[in-house]
Amino acid sequence: MPEQAYAGDISAREAWELLSSESDAVLVDCRTTAEWSFVGVADLDSVGKAPLMAEWQGYPSMAVNPNFADTLRDEGVTPDRAVVFMCRSGVRSKAAAIEMTGRGYGRCYNLAGGFEGGLDEEGHRGTVNGWKSAGLPWRQS
């Protein structure tokens, strides 16, 4: 059986539990600067942390950031730490988790549903799944 490309998908609640219980676990928000500014960010103050903001793809080209791994390393994210990657809906963060696993990071998780989650029947995000839908702390600038 082939080795899994990353540690797996976890729910927002599971991510919160991991970030709360492991002092060196880190949340990497790999959305764009525009998303952080206009949509909001996870608030980890109550667990004594802050998310690491590192764009996986840059807006507007949406080209993969060639410095992504360097940014994580420069911010002290080491291969032995649990890393939860989060984007809007779980697609970019899954790609980031796979990439960093390939670079020797052993515990890379994708936050299934991301920050905003999937679309509901009316085409809106934030009600189906993801960080906001789970009622976890977040804030806007």
Tell me the layout of helices and strands.
Elements: E1 8-10, H1 12-21, E2 26-29, H2 33-38, E3 41-42, E4 52-53, E5 57-58, E6 63-64, H3 68-74, E7 82-86, H4 91-102, E8 107-111, E9 138-139
Parallel strand pairs: 1-8, 2-4, 2-7, 7-8
Antiparallel strand pairs: 3-9, 5-6
Could you provide a short overview of the structure?
The chain is of the alpha/beta class and 141 residues long. It is built from 4 helices and 9 strands; from the N terminus they run βαβαββββαβαββ. The longest helix is centred in the C-terminal third of the chain and has 12 residues.
- Main sheet attributes: strand count, strand direction, barrel closure: 5 strands, parallel
Radius of gyration: 14 Å
Q: In percent terms, what proportion of residues is strand? A: 15-25%
Q: Which word captures the global form?
A: globular
Distance between the termini: 46 Å
Structural class: alpha/beta
- In N-to-C order, the SSE pattern is EHEHEEEEHEHEE
Number of strands: 9
Low-confidence stretches: none
Q: What is the count of DSSP helices, taking H or I runs of 4+ residues?
A: 4
Share of helix among residues? Answer: 10-25%
- Neighbour order of strands in the largest sheet: 1-8-7-2-4
Q: If you average the pLDDT, what whole number results?
A: 93
